[in-house]
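fwd from M.: "can u put these together and see what the complex looks like"

so here's what she sent:
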Amino acid sequence: MAHRPVSDITRLAEQIRATSGPLRIEGGGSWLHAGGPWAPATSLSVRHLRGVRAYTPGDLVVTVAAGTTLAELAATTAAHGQMLALDPYGTPDDTIGAVVATASPAPLALGDHRVRDLVLGVQVVTGDGVVMRAGGHVVKNVAGFDLVRLQTGAWGTLGVITEVSLRLHARPPVDRLVCAAVPHADTGALDDLLPAVLAQRAPLPMLLVSSPGEEPRLWARLSGNTSRVRALHARLQALPVGDVREAPDDETWRTLRATPPDAIVLRARTHRSDAVPFFRAARDAFDSATLSYDPAHGSLRLVMPGTGLASLERDLARWYRLAAARGAEHTMTVVVDQGRTRSAPHHTPRTPLEAGVKDAFDARDVLNRLAELAPSTLAHPDA
Amino acid sequence: MTALRETLEGIVGPRWVKSRAPELAPYDSDGLPGYRATPSLAVFPGSRADVIAVVRALADTGTPWVPRGAGTGLSGGALANGVVLIGLNRLTRILDVDPVNRLARVEPGVVNASLSRVTTRYGLQYAPDPSSQTACTIGGNVAENAGGPHCLKYGVTLNHVLECEVVLPDGTVTRLGGAYAESSGYDLLGAFVGSEGCFGIATEVTVQLVPLPDAVHTLLADFASVTDAARAVSRIIASGIVPAALEMMDNATIRCVEASIYAAGYPVDAAAVLLCEVDGVAEGLDEDVAIIRDACHAAGARSVAVATDAADRARLWQGRKKAFGAMGRLAPALVVQDAVVPRTRLPEVLAAIEQIGERFGVRVCNVFHAGDGNLHPNIPYNAHDAAESARVHEAMGAIMTACIEAGGTITGEHGVGLDKLPYMESLFDADSLDMMCRVRRVFDPETRANPGKVIPVHSCREWHGATGPSPRGPQARV
């Protein structure tokens, strides 16, 4: 497979125009296993497009080249007491371009923000080799149709993201990661905990993590001034959990976000009110999975290291069965975030609108035309 | 047109199709003076099925149409000459409120404020709060991606809409987004919100609701200079506090409000006042108030007052919310503008706006969302005076240019409509505009939905028979 680093937007556009075959777009190259293996293709890496293009701290907006890593972005903004308000699953070496392209989920984000909430503008080279911009550099903008949202989470199938403008947040005076054990989870403690978590009215990003053979833990991010953080701590402690303790170090945070390269990762979602059967059925169905439930968005992340395709499909069918038996199945949707499955390739447009959008940006179908590169919706096994 | 009228009457009933000039007059403008366009027919569907049938009838006859909510828009967006106007203000049902999942499913004609009135009983609110919220509709808010004072903390319409059922211009019905569905497809809902009626009509909108705050504190700081007030904005934002709202009014606006029945007790000799609100968990709010007070004083505030109770808060907000109404006393017409600039550029842009007002001999009143740099320069004038109207138009153009040159944008929450069309090419290069045209044609291949809005017609390349990237490509600028 040919591998071409890109250091210049004009050349990138020329390369795309000159290509007739499929192109694989890479950022840091740290997540190529997302959906692999892939068909031979020319690989274009944007990792050499890096660095801050514009940053006026008083505006709380930064514009960076797509190959800039999250670590570089964090270092730049931290110098001014600011931050990108989310740390997606992955590593600090991931590129911001990849994070935007994949709309990577981010646990315990400040204000429960998602990537789509924080991207203000992008520069993109389309599948026709056209350099275009969408959005801008200000925090509110409704000028023209919103092509930023279309690029965010399109997995590079609508264009090569070369530059992004991001909304930043000032670091709160106190910003603390805490966690507490959930004792007796197997005997029904979750039945009490999850409804209480969902009824929480305070801005309190939380994550319920259950690893095989371990007591589940409830993580939370407490931020604000000292009095508010104290109050949030008390609210968390009022939930049916063990002692709420501060996470020991940054390493804990990195471990929580890390994803083994050989794992299959699923994302699933349902109504928040179905959280108990949804979560418990998942725990029962997937023996080896680490489950992370994000109550703000009603989403569950399942990480299954070394899982084979056959066992995935068996466990998935079991999950649907168990969830159905407990009344949660009818609203469940599951997509693959990482790993090979037999499900339909993402880029195969499922609706005429999706096909039209793909055609508008990449009429020749050259960008990331790779069967399992991007996430795909898993059909119900009985469907 | 007679045949079409009869077809539409067959769908919605004769009472709900208007075709005579006096009946159509109310629909020839929106909230922004200076633009008039009369539809050939106005049709008012009474149900989702009616909307679909109407859109299909218009598709069958290749008829262009423009959707309209309450007509409170401020961009000249919901009007067009010779088209069929589809009024959605009869679709006013709140279909359900789900307090556990914090969702509401509504028809597009539901008035913004009435949704929050209903959800208050569950301790929940619909957060986006445009100043016209007592009249504007959720469907219109979706079309414009409407904002409001409290969007600084809570986000704009896009951040609150989870799912829409949409009738595409060809009559196809589709669902975009998902209230609680994990998606792996393109964010078509994100593209639909803010598409100004060009991508279709939302017949049902599912929005998220957020808890009402436990406590709210509102401050009013007054400043001897606009620059000081802008500096206070920067200090507050840099402190890490995200106020629920951070609004600025200049002296012209303050005087206007204080001379009206909406008088809020603002100091009439202040160059500017900042209205700042913090809300949420009760604990710690006092600390935030103290930090904000210090930030205002450090930036040169003459005084900082904190509302003592709900009535006091309502009084302070009344002046802000009714500022546009108060300006109605100054002249028969008011043009409300909408631009966004980087927050650090506020002082210089406000100074530039003042100079532009002097240069063109027009009075500019600034009342705006300072926390996110979203300016609303307003000019009261006599729309029947051609010379004055021309000066106002020129002044507005100069203000837009100043905002673009400061790295800003031409609209933060009102939309492009007709009013901002001339500036789109200053903001986006030809390739970027062409891509917008392409995406529009995905939703509406015949461009019959709200024709002539958002993108200048000549920017759409196929209409000139050109293909491929323009030579300007890499020099794209925003």
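replying to her w this: The domain at 331-427 of chain B is CATH 3.30.70.2740 (Alpha-Beta Plaits).
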